[in-house]
Amino acid sequence: MARSNFAHGIKASLVIALAMTACQEDNDESSASTSTSTTTQTSTNTTPAALSYWQDVAPIYFNRCVSCHQAGGIAPIALDNYQDAKNFAQAAKASVVARTMPPWLMTSDGSCGEYIDEGALRPEEIEIIANWVDQGAPEGTPTDLEHPSRPDLPEAQSFHTPLFTPMPAGTELSEFDEYRCFAIPLGRTDTSFLTGFEVLPGEKRLVHHVVGYLVDANEVGENGKSALEIMNALDAESPDRLGWPCYADAGEGVPVGGAPVVWAPGTSVVQFPAQSGIPLAPSHMLVAQVHYNFPNGENQGLSDQTEIRLQFKSNVMRQAFSVLVDGLLDTLGSSTPHVIPPGVSDHPFSWGLKWEETGLEGLPYVDIWGVFPHMHELGQTFEATLSGVDANNQATSTCAADIERWDFEWQLQYFRTEPMRFGPGGALNVTCHFDSTGRTEPTLPGWGTSNEMCLIGLYAVLPEGRSLR
Ligand code: HEC
Question: Ligand 1 test: best mutation among 14, 66, 67, 95, most atoms within 8 Å of CB?
């Protein structure tokens, strides 16, 4: 494919497509005689402009779908050429109208905040795709389109997962998947700050997602051993294979200090907001959890080595921290852990965390810029609200997360364009709904495959000049 200024191309043709729609509507008000559509219509209907793959749909597909939908991509079909796009036109219309594609779980109609690099299609993009399909998916005049070039992450340092040949676990919940964790030493000698990341899978057909957990090698886990000892023991359990299994976190018993690196196909460079960064001690390691996926069992025998680029700075304007909080998991520490009974189609669980319970009370506030909602296989919906009081002592309530159709396959971290302030008098409230109709046994909270979580990860930024220690 020719190298051309793709980003410019998209904008230009989108503007044109929208202008055409607008013109058409104007025309309709006076007369429908200039309509190019063959559908019969009443004077109150608007006629969609004549649309084509190359002029109208391909710019959207290349921007929003092709990172996954191309030969060698993780999706089963390609959408970067006319023939495939035409063959899958009806399926594409159905998926974009239902908002199941592109994968983006957060409600994004503005009712729950606005997000950086929002993956959801805009309503006008959905309309263009749907109208094009209704018009018989015409081709138009072929043009050269190029993927948008990646934004840069200056002075990033490269780390790699080992070259690894995954095997489908073949278990009920991960028939065609393997989750594997690898410890990556960061080699920091002084305290420094993690300020951004980029993940580049080596074998795009295999790598479905990557979560990078921060683990302090010296931190003592529940069994009284250090994180390093726990990881070494896990690693030693399969001497013939690298790493260790880890379905939902950094592995059984490994204490984690947040998950600042979250990547799924389509995630670009992430530069943490507000010129902030997460302080790292020399004892911090990154544990990369890689979810290898074999669509329909294909691609077995392939190997992957994923590159994780991390940006460090020795100073930042504002310190940040990444934290995972889960009121459901916390009940494990009580005498009566919360149990999800089997056979219930809608089992809600709610938990709350008051500012005064966070251990952050020494600070005037923190600004929450990023959220990472997380449940396992029984999760259906996820809602989080951040309440507080404003300068006039009025109660406020902000939607912190809203997922109407949870999908364990698509773990995403959502960075907002404006932060949410969490401070004195405030509280974070989370509600998860679970469907246990497929289970015959009660489900306990936990990190395992068949356990559940109602977790939210937060990327929180401290006021300028403040630190946690
Ligand atoms: C982040 C990766 C990704 C992006 C971006 C993405 N898809 Fe998908 N798509 C997938 C995967 C993976 C599947 C396979 C089903 C699954 O795993 O959910 C899929 C499945 C589909 C299917 C169903 C194919 C079939 O077998 O019938 C259609 C249609 C589709 N996507 C259309 C789109 C369109 C249109 C866009 C852009 C507007 C898009 N997708 C963006 C990853 C993606």
Answer: 95
Which numbered atom of ligand 1 lies nearest the CA of 266?
A: 1
CA 352 / ligand 1 centre spacing (Å): 35
Using CA atoms, how far apart are residues 447 and 181, in angstroms rounded to an integer? Answer: 14
Nearest CA to ligand 1 atom 30: 92
Q: How long is the chain?
A: 469
Q: Is the CB of 213 under 6 A from ligand 1?
A: no
- Cβ neighbors of 67 (< 8 A, separation 6 or more) are 73, 147, 265, 266
Whether ligand 1 lies within 6 angstroms of the CB of 95 is answered as: yes
In this structure, the number of other CB atoms found within 10 A of the CB of residue 352 comes to: 13
Pick 10 or 129 by higher pLDDT.
129
- The residue nearest atom 19 of ligand 1, judged by CA position, is 75
Spatial CA neighbour of 432 closest among 356, 381, 386, 468: 381
Is 59 touching ligand 1 by the criterion CB < 6 Å? no
* Closest protein CA for atom 16 of ligand 1: 75
Quick one: which of 42, 24, 43, 22 has its CA closest to 34? 24
pLDDT category at 87 given cuts 50, 70, 90 is very high
Count CB-CB contacts under 10 A for residue 459.
30
> What is the chain's alpha carbon radius of gyration, rounded to the nearest angstrom?
24
Buried/exposed 268-304: b ≥16 CB within 10 Å, e otherwise: ebbbbbbebbbbbbebbbbbbbbbbbbeeeebeeeeb
pLDDT tens digits for range 221-256: 989 999 999 999 999 999 999 999 997 689 989 999
pLDDT score of 11? 27
79 token code pair = 């959408």
Q: Identify the pLDDT of residue 77.
A: 93
Ligand 1 centroid, distance to 90 Cα (angstroms): 13
Q: How far apart are CA 174 and CA 4, in angstroms?
A: 41
Amino acid identity of 368?
A: I
**With a 6 A CB cut-off, is 205 part of the ligand 1 pocket?**
no
